[in-house]
Write a structure and sequence with these properties.
Low-confidence stretches: none
Number of strands: 4
Strand content: over 45%
Largest sheet: 4 strands, antiparallel
Structural class: mainly beta
Mean pLDDT: 91
Number of helices: 0
Strand order of the largest sheet: 1-2-3-4
């Protein structure tokens, strides 16, 4: 399957969109274009990403904690 995603955030001011493709039940790829504006500067990131299933269990590795919004 595949899909198009888009998002907009206000703090920080970031927006983006892209397309995600599930190549199988254990892997995906995506192309994203993300725009940000901070301290009067505009920035654009154009990226390709891939991901794959590694394991049902992460063992002793703990999930990362998301940073708190300012």
């Amino acid at each position: 399957g595949s899909g198009h995603i888009a998002f907009t955030c206000t703090k920080p001011k970031v927006s983006g969109e892209g397309d995600v493709v599930a190549d199988s039940d254990t892997s995906y790829r995506a192309h994203m274009k993300i725009h940000s504006q901070e301290q009067g500067r505009d920035d654009t990131v154009d990226m390709d990403v891939t991901g794959r299933w590694l394991s049902e269990s992460c063992g002793n590795v703990r999930p990362l904690t998301a940073p708190r919004a300012r």
